[in-house]
Structure formats: structure tokens, C-alpha cells
Amino acid sequence: MHPAIIAFSQADSKLASLIELIGDLTLTPSYKPFESLVMSIISQQLSAKAAATIKARVKLVIPNITPELVLAAEEEAIRQCGVSYPKIRYIRDLSTKVITGEVALDNLQDLDNTELLKQLTSVKGIGAWTAEMFLIFTLGRPDVMSIGDAGLQRAAKWLHTLADRKDGNYLGEVAPNWAPYRSFASLYLWRAIDMGFVDSGLQVESCAKPNLEQG
């Protein structure tokens, strides 16, 4: 059993109930951090289907996504893939900053979350949310909480049946209890949305465990 699940069972009975409903979720780090960032920029404000199509086209133009090859690629060739001109500028800015060392992707293990977020958000087109998703899904950092993620806020409110807040920061009430595994808590909150629990009108203890043997 992952230490996060053990910690949650002691720190938050509601989250423990959600974990029991959903089962094991894990973080799988990527070994291509630069490519992940480029693809994150390309995917912004697009549906999953549209993003997948455009990313596949970009991979045909630049099969090996490196800073040097991004800068060497013809801008119009990237544009013909469906990438907007602003996003092309963003991925070129990222490429330049990686080459100059302003964004240090070669020694990610030496940077804490705060420093890495600072470097990433210095790149045009990379905001806090994109940087936080990179830390969670590409690097597998265990203790990241995206306060600006509306889905997480909504799920946290549902999980703990919290009263309405003018600032909308429901995570601020409960997320401190989830350290040092807040990324894992995020995975379960996102999955709770995907599985319909958050919009079910039921408290977590009343939600039915999905029958995975069907179908």
C-alpha cells in the first residue's frame, strides 16, 4: 500500500472513503520533460481530441522534440499543423530559455517545487496551472496542489460538504491535512469528478462502488 493512502486513512476519513470507492491511483513520471511542456502549451484551450490531432501532426514535422529542433523548424510548417502563432512563440521562448539555462530541465531533481514553478512561469504561455500539471503528471512530484484548479475546488467542497465561500478556496480548508501527498489527493478528486460522484448529490459515504466486472 502506498504511504499516501496510509497517511490519508489517518488524516482524512472522507478522503479515505473516496479512495476505498476508487481504488489505487498512481503517478507515472515522464522521461521527456521538454516534450511534455511543449505538448502542454499546444494543448491549451483545446479539446482533448483536437489537441491529440495537432500534437500528432507536430510529431511528424519534428519527430524528436528538442529545443534545438523546435528552433530549427520552419514556423509555417508548425503553423500548418494547427498550432497558433502565439503558441509557436511560446514554444520557441521555452526552447530558448532551456538552451540558455533559464529553465533548467537537465537538473530537475535539484530544484524544489517553488523554484521550478518560478522558472516555468517565466516562460511565455506557461501559467501556474500548466506548471503545476507538469510537476504532477510529468515529474510525478507527490505534494503539489493547484489552488487555481476549479475542478479540484469543486470536488473538495463536495467531499467535505463545505459551506459556500466567497473566495471559492475550499482547498484552503482541507488540503493542508493532505501534505505531503497533495498530488495524490488531487488524482482522487479529479477521478471523483470523472466518475460522477461530485455531481451525484450524494455524500461520499453514500456513493456506490463501481462494478468493474460488468462489460
Automatic annotation (TrEMBL):
<dbReference type="InterPro" id="IPR051912">
    <property type="entry name" value="Alkylbase_DNA_Glycosylase/TA"/>
</dbReference>
<keyword id="KW-0227">DNA damage</keyword>
<dbReference type="InterPro" id="IPR011257">
    <property type="entry name" value="DNA_glycosylase"/>
</dbReference>
<dbReference type="Pfam" id="PF00730">
    <property type="entry name" value="HhH-GPD"/>
</dbReference>
<protein>
    <recommendedName>
        <fullName>DNA-3-methyladenine glycosylase II</fullName>
        <ecNumber>3.2.2.21</ecNumber>
    </recommendedName>
</protein>
<feature type="domain" description="HhH-GPD">
    <location>
        <begin position="42"/>
        <end position="194"/>
    </location>
</feature>
<keyword id="KW-0234">DNA repair</keyword>
<dbReference type="InterPro" id="IPR003265">
    <property type="entry name" value="HhH-GPD_domain"/>
</dbReference>
